[in-house]
Structure formats: structure tokens, C-alpha cells
Amino acid sequence: MRYVLMALAEGGDTAPLCDDPAALDRFEQELVRAGVLLAAEALEPADTGTRIRFDGEERILSRIPPAPSGTGSMAGRVEGLWMLQTAGEDEALEWARRLPLTRGTVDVRRVAGGGRR
Q1: Are residues 6 and 99 in contact, defined by beta-carbon separation less than 8 angstroms?
Q2: Are 95 and 40 in contact (CB under 8 A)?
Q3: Closest C-alpha among 66, 70, 69 to residue 51
Q4: Residue 58: which domain range?
Q5: For the chain, how many structural domains are there in total?
Q6: For the CA atoms of the chain, what is the radius of gyration?
Q7: Strands across the sheet with 37-42, in order?
């Protein structure tokens, strides 16, 4: 089964989610050695991207707004992701628990239809 681990920054927090990039590299090497890593990507800041809103046939493009300020906001911004091929949810959750992040949140979601379109 395929799962995506999405690292989310919360509120206006702009600090890196991992204080030790070398630890993150080691973690990703473990994923490779275990044969479960399909993809891993860090994303540029959200406000460098474009948002497309779908309204019927209309497509409305806009810049992604800057992150809200303040720590009370629960709006999560995807900062990075890992796609894994695991035996099931328990294994995906175990890998997610081992992520060397020092802040933020990780959403673990199964790819619909087993990842095939």
C-alpha cells in the first residue's frame, strides 16, 4: 500500500521543521535501504507558488497568500512529503514516528486506489 507523509508547518511558523538536515538525510537513507521510499521532496515556500481555484468552467489563478501570522492558527502548509510503499498503515505510521522533525505536524494518508490510476 502507498502512503504519503506530509510535513506541515503551522500558523506563521517559518522555522525549518527539522533542526538537523543531516538527520533528515540519514532518515531518508534508511527509507531507501528498507526499500519503502518511492519519492521525497521538500517544497519551496507556499507564497512562491500559484493557486488555481475551480469554479465551474472558470479557472482563477492567484498567488498563494503568505502564511497567517500568530501561533494560534491551525492552517497547515505542506513543507515536504515522502511517498512510501509499505505493508500497511502500521508500518507507514512507524516510519512517520521516526521522522527527525522538531516542530510541525505530519499527516499520514493512504493513496486512493492503491496508487494506480
Answers
A1: no
A2: no
A3: 66
A4: 2-115
A5: 1
A6: 16
A7: 37-42, 76-85, 2-10, 105-110
Neighbours of 72 (CB within 10 A): 9
- CA-wise closest residue to 82 among 106, 64, 102, 104: 106
Helix or strand run (H / E) with residue 97 = helix 89-97
Write the CATH number for 70. Answer: 3.30.70.1060
With CA atoms as reference, report the closest residue to 75 among 43, 104, 117. 104
Q: How do the pLDDT tens digits run along the chain, 117 residues long?
A: 999 999 998 877 777 888 899 999 999 999 999 999 999 999 988 888 999 999 999 999 999 887 666 554 445 788 999 999 999 999 999 999 999 999 989 999 999 985 555
Cell triple for 72: 494560534
Is residue 38 within 8 A of residue 84, CB to CB? The reply is yes
Provide the Cα torsion 27, 29, 31, 35; round to 10°: -170
Which residues lie below 8 Å from residue 112, measured CB to CB, with a gap of 6+? none
